[in-house]
Structure prediction request, 86 residues.
Amino acid sequence: MLTLDQVAEQLQIKPSWLRARCEGREVPFTMLGGSYRFTDEHVTEIIRKFEEVPAVKRRSPRVVAPRNVTPLEPKIPARLRKKQQA
Prediction:
């Protein structure tokens, strides 16, 4: 059995964060003699509960113009056309 401070040190978190999660009944623990105690299984479950899985990057569907559509060229403003010709 591990104490709250031991688990906080092991997980490299603040004891106050873990205590707040215990008080809110968000993490598994055992109460012995008025103190929070944790088994290895409790620690493993705490890690699993707060584990973040990388998001799958979704591609946006590529829009393909029909073959009978002529692609447009961007229109260059007159003031810029003059600079290009000079």
